[in-house]
UniProtKB/TrEMBL annotation:
A Pfam family annotated for this UniProt entry: Sigma54_activat
Record InterPro entries: AAA+_ATPase (IPR003593), AAA_lid_NorR (IPR058031), GAF (IPR003018), GAF-like_dom_sf (IPR029016), Homeodomain-like_sf (IPR009057), HTH_Fis (IPR002197), P-loop_NTPase (IPR027417), Sigma_54_int (IPR002078)
An example molecular function term from Gene Ontology annotations: ATP binding
Sigma-54 factor interaction domain residues: 194-423
Name listed for the protein in its UniProt record: Nitric oxide reductase transcriptional regulator NorR
Organism of derivation: Pseudomonas veronii
Amino acid sequence: MTAQSLLTTLLPLVADLSRELPEGERYRRLLQAMRALLPCDAAALLRLDGESLVPLAVDGLSADTLGRRFKVSEHPRFAVLLGSPGPTRFDSDSELPDPYDGLVDGLHGHLEIHDCMGCPLYVDDKPWGLLTLDALDTERFERVELDALQAFASLAAATVNVAERIEHLALRAEDERQRAEIYRQASGQQHKEMIGQSKPHKRLVEEINLVGGSDLTVLITGETGVGKELVAQAIHAASSRADKPLISLNCAALPETLVESELFGHVRGAFTGALNERRGKFELANGGTLFLDEVGELSLTVQAKLLRVLQSGQLQRLGSDKEHQVDVRLIAATNRDLAEEVRNGRYRADFYHRLSVYPLQVPALRERGRDVLLLAGFFLEQNRSRMGLGSLRLTSDAQAALLAYNWPGNVRELEHLIGRSALKALGNCRERPKILSLSAQDLDLPDVSAAPIAPPPEVTAIAGGDLRQATEHYQRQVINACLERHQHNWASTARELGLDRANLGRMAKRLGLK
């Protein structure tokens, strides 16, 4: 490799440092330049996040790699690279397991004898992450000088440094993460990452960052299993209250009397079993955030008492006349259509409007495109670690099946599916495999190409042959069937039928369904 070729490769990256580029595009260009400089079959840029390495960009590896989180303690090659002051090239017959075994595009067997090297990246003299290169040809890097990789790594470190500084200036994310970390360490809460690259997911993250900086009450809506609690945690982490408590309560898990006690607290003797005085969730969350999940399940009585606290910040413990002042930011979540509940008299209009100051809709998994593969990668790596496997991967037909499925249970369904399928597939192996591949058959998802998910109901005959009556009868059947599939959630029903929510409401009223 000549100095001229090295200069030719690096100059465009130097020019990119002064340009405003999306983080993903900046990292994609970085890997493209590295593969031009050091030809290989797979390359990756990984950021060190605590005890794990997080892939930020990959080239030549399966899409689900971006969703994986590699624990350094479980991947000795990564540990060696991070512990080295400069570039490291592994012997082609190294016995250390390769983290990308089963993940290289076009290679369905073991990644055993191959050429592999990598280099740690440092930002502000601190370890930031890794650059890795893999080649199927065992002598691909034989003539490559490690100095060239070191020179590239220095520019790569400058690139990621610029990308991070731009992001921190735009979103003040560094300060927010530090405050969130202080509270997580104090409370023992686990950081949960929101994974996705689709447009709907990015729009959601933008809204979280926007409303997170305010003190507005947020109503998170969305189908079961989309991750509403995760969104609430992200809003809290992006707020000025991030170093204060985030207290959660599932309103559907307790009877009405216990819900009041959980929310407002009680004094000794307030009810049978109240042996001691107890603070409620509002007092525990004072200065921080209170997250009420399944808020659509609250009774009208509890709604009225909550409304008073939200308006005045004052509450009384059950059995006490003493007032307590609290400063709490409220985030609520529901999979119900609360506007419809208000119209039907099952929900207080004043409480609904107090909750929905900033409504935030979480997109369903089927609306997020290829995010399903990134999330699958995250759950695959979790199960690989839990089951003690060398590699847990998806075959191409399994990936296609995941992309084609409708996901009525959303992310929670995907998580359970990956865990269940991995366990069953391992149980079907006579010997413990080095690489466990999950096929479409292992996932056991419905064959969406064989038949429509919801075939239209048959039209029954109408006496007299009136076409209008027959049409309305058919419309009732279709809407009722769709409502059943979505547990009578009108917003979800409207989305499946391709109708505006208000138009569906007017049609249902005309057909006598409301």
